[in-house]
Amino acid sequence: MAGVKIQDIRKSYGATEVIHGVNVDISDGEFVALVGPSGCGKSTLLRMIAGLEPINGGTIAIGDRVVNNLPPAERDIAMVFQTYALYPHKSVAENMGFALKVAKADRSEIDRRVKEAAEILSLTEYLDRKPRHLSGGQRQRVAMGRAIVRDPQVFLFDEPLSNLDAKLRIQMRTEIKELHQRLKTTTVFVTHDQIEAMTLADRIVVMQGGRIEQVGTPLELYDNPANAFVATFIGAPSMNLLAGHAAGGQVQVGGRQFAGPGGAGKQLLGVRPEHLILADDGLPMEVKVVEPTGSETMVFLRFEGQDVTAVFRERHAFESGSTVHLKPDPDHLHFFDAETGMRL
Ligand SMILES: Nc1ncnc2c1ncn2[C@@H]1O[C@H](COP(=O)(O)OP(=O)(O)OP(=O)(O)O)[C@@H](O)[C@H]1O
């Protein structure tokens, strides 16, 4: 096994630079998720680790080998794609063993490894089937099986769950997590789904516009987002950002004062939906839509021209159009500079 060290990596397509000097140090055995909105460069970064895209600057090392100029086959990695990329005319067993066959491994060794991977992934009874006779989840497992049999130093996943329906996605997410707990192979997992990143990863790299916004454990990002972008990207529903004005150590929002971080001028008061409390001295907000999910009540509101979301553990039957008073929990406030978005 091996870690992955990414140092000052740059990537351009023609004259346009799309990755602007990225640094990430992934430990041996760690599960790291790359997240960010569409076009932020996460797939490009993954493909550079895989050797599928040339690098324009910086170095990538897997273990103690700099791999910049090594072709994919010599990097000791295995990649699982969104489309699974299975051979339609080969059986599950042939798909899973193909890379070993190409590498001229012994027939008995291939059989042994394929059987072992099939066992881990509950695919044993499907080994003779063709991919078209499998469900989406089973195909996904074959794609993972193909990666496992090679026993690589690093697994690279490029949005592997995005073709599955919601229920299967959650099931496969758990399977991937169990697999990682069992094999402890260093993993880099690209997704645009922050929940997937939160639930799977040891650490998350949040990207935007070809740059890293923040790297941290899921709860570090949730509790201490470095800026307003990370604050709203991590967590669903998103953190509310209320326009405020800072002076004399206080931040004024809607005529109420909150103990702030200091400074003067425009600031954003960040509060997560679960940290809005019903209170008579709360901020007056207009109820737009109420969504009861059974386990909780999600409420969409308007406050001084801004959209606000609140989530309650209890059931509430608020009338649409009515006014409720909600107070940001003083123990869970976040403040950001309104101009730069940086945490204060
Ligand atoms: N072959 C290419 N030629 C030119 N520009 C490209 C090429 N491939 C990607 N890009 C650009 O590079 C940037 C990063 O793309 P990338 O696919 O890595 O983003 P992403 O974060 O993975 O997005 P998505 O979630 O939509 O897949 C985008 O602006 C994209 O338009």
In short:
This protein has 344 residues and is an alpha+beta fold. It has helices at 42-50, 92-102, 107-120, 136-149, 166-183, 194-200, 218-223, 228-233; strands at residues 4-13, 16-26, 31-35, 57-62, 65-66, 77-80, 154-158, 186-191, 203-208, 211-216, 240-247, 250-253, 256-259, 265-271, 276-292, 297-303, 306-312, 323-328, 334-337. The chain folds into two domains: 4-231, Rossmann fold, CATH 3.40.50.300; 238-337, Nucleic acid-binding proteins (OB fold (Dihydrolipoamide Acetyltransferase, E2P), Beta Barrel).
Question: What is the spatial order of strands in the main beta sheet?
Answer: 6-7-8-3-9-10
Total discrete domains: 2
Give the averaged pLDDT, no decimals: 94
CATH class of the largest domain: Alpha Beta
What would you give as the CATH superfamily of the largest domain?
P-loop containing nucleotide triphosphate hydrolases
In CATH, the topology of the largest domain is named Rossmann fold
**Helix share, percent:** 10-25%
Instruction: Report the portion of residues in β strands.
Output: 35-45%
Return the CATH architecture of the largest domain: 3-Layer(aba) Sandwich
